[in-house]
């Protein structure tokens, strides 16, 4: 990366970068065997309805339990998997696991209404010709209704996307799969462009929520979020907020009209049974 970014001027002078590069190389070459050996696992972070506080589902977040290095977060290995193409089989594994999990939750909570699962998609998966057929096949084989699945795509992955790239997402949306625009507000998307995208949910990036950590929050930050929510709702998009860490943030975001929230205030990413327990608590309260 250093080379492609700016020549090799600093490479020799920076032994730390060297160590990082070795680690990166080591991790990259270990990825395929890790998938085969089942070293990946998924944590689920609850998605909560801001209006009534009920749990509506969870986002699937993949982790790697490395035999030497312990638990490694996705920010460290997803880019490597994306680079080598391993993200395609890894992403398919995450999708199938998550769809199975959503099916289990829903079967255990018939009264609670369907519990949905959100799965992150990498740009390379978006471009893969089997995205639609794989997704349909998994949903049918597992027996989950498409409406219980939401695929998260980052804003930057769709910047400048032409119609060919959008076609598979459109097909999935027509089937009833929700498409969410992840990390919204960090890219450079033209707001008017939103109308063209087959998305039904905007996930407002954590940086907006962070701006509300202090009380009173910066009035300009509030105006920006208020404006985004108004625009989203006028386009029939629901708004999910990431990174809610305090009750004060949750109150503020509810007042601003956001629909769903996710963050440490509600729950950290955890094992699938966490969602089961939270949904059970909902049903009995
Ligand atoms: P993301 O999709 O934006 O996921 C939200 C990230 O914010 C997660 O980090 C989550 O643990 C973290 N988070 C949630 N609530 C809070 C909070 O209240 N405060 C703070 N400070 N952080 C919070 P995580 O699990 O490290 O995942 C990082 C990114 O890795 C994800 O960002 C997503 O882009 C990617 N990722 C995770 N799983 C997958 C996957 O299966 N496939 C692909 N392609 N990408 C994945
Ligand atoms: Mg996400
Ligand atoms: Mg996100
Ligand atoms: Mg984010």
TrEMBL record:
Residue intervals of the EAL domain: 24-283
Domain of life: Bacteria
Coiled coil stretches, renumbered: none
Protein name: Bifunctional diguanylate cyclase/phosphodiesterase
Originating species: Streptomyces longisporoflavus
Whole-protein residues included: 427 to 711 of 711
């Amino acid at each position: 990366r250093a080379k492609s970014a700016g020549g090799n001027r600093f490479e020799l002078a920076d032994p730390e970068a060297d160590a990082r590069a070795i680690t990166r190389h080591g991790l990259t070459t270990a990825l395929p065997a890790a998938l085969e050996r089942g070293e990946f696992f998924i944590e689920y972070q609850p998605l909560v309805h801001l209006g009534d506080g009920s749990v509506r589902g969870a986002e699937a977040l993949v982790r790697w339990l490395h035999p030497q290095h312990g638990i490694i977060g996705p920010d460290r290995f997803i880019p490597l998997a994306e680079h080598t193409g391993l993200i395609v089989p890894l992403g398919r594994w995450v999708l199938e696991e998550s769809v199975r999990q959503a099916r289990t939750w829903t079967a255990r909570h018939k009264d609670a209404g369907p519990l949905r699962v959100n799965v992150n998609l990498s740009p390379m998966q978006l471009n893969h010709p089997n995205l639609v057929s794989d997704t349909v096949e998994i949903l049918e084989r597992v027996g989950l209704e498409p409406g219980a699945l939401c695929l998260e795509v980052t804003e930057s992955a769709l910047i400048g996307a032409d119609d060919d790239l959008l076609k598979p997402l459109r097909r999935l949306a027509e089937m009833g799969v929700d498409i969410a625009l992840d990390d919204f507000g960090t890219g450079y998307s033209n707001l008017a462009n939103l109308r063209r995208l087959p998305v039904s949910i905007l996930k407002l990036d954590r940086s907006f929520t962070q701006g509300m950590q202090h009380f009173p929050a910066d009035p300009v930050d509030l105006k920006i979020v208020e404006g985004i929510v108004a625009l989203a709702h006028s386009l029939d998009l629901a708004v999910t907020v990431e990174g809610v860490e305090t009750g004060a943030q949750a109150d503020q975001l509810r007042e601003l009209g956001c629909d769903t929230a996710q963050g440490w205030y509600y729950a950290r990413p955890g094992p699938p049974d966490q969602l089961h327990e939270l949904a059970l608590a909902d049903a009995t309260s």
